[in-house]
Amino acid sequence: MSTTLGAFIAGGVAACGAVTVTHGFETIKIRLQLQGELQSKKEVVRQYKGVFHGVAVVLKNEGPKGLLRGLSCAYIYQMTLNGCRLGFYEPIRKTVTTAIFKDPNVQSFGVNIFSGATSGILGAAAGSPFFLVKTRLQSYSPFLPVGTQHHYKNAWDGLRTIYTQEGIKGLYRGVGPAMVRTGFGSSVQLPTYFFAKRRLVKHLGMEEGAPLHLASSTASGFVVCVVMHPPDTVMSRMYNQTGNLYNSAFDCLYRTVKTEGILAVYKGFFAHLARILPHTVLTLSLAEQTNKVMRRIEDRLLSQSLREKV
Asked: What pTM value is reported for the model?
């Protein structure tokens, strides 16, 4: 087992590799979520008609740059979020399991869910300002705008502008729904991944390796998307608002459902699925490999006593 620091680094590196591949779908997901904001179905002009239509429209009007808006912020956010999520999950799980069952090796589904949610919430809170700017950069389009438009030159300009105009409070706008969203996703991502992995080994006789990691990650990614998408839609709208369009996450949810219907919370679901399935597969599969690399590095560089401390 690698150290907490090693797991943090491995998780962050794995997530950055995954986000490089899936960032374009995240851009389309956000624009679909913002399209027709607080408008009835009759009033909405559908500029983006789905995942692949959205990709085609953005490439035609903005080029690859349009799909990759906010990628630098995504890297920092993924390092923070998944570093915390994958780095703190096992220490939290072991601590809670030991406190309850006196044996850190006991597998409790409830404890696993709690550990996943807690580690995800910590990461979401730490990385929220970067996700805020990333969302605003991705929603911006000089050709087919949806939602409120924020014209930042780059990620750092966005952070500086928000801090200058709104202070620290502005940088953490929407952190509440972000923590709920990530808590929901994290509470099921790792537990369902390890649950699927154990079942595949037990019932299908699969052995440790890429096929097992791929199958377990796919199952985990689908469950994460179903659970996480409604708070994700609320978070995207809270992040992208100017002023106080919504008083709170509950106000956003209530007005969205009232004006656009209950299915509005699942706007952009298939774009989210197109992003999160490969993202989860790549993150968890790469994390397995990067963890192995980190363990080898630690074994060479750190003494046993030092590894236990970090």
From this structure: 0.81
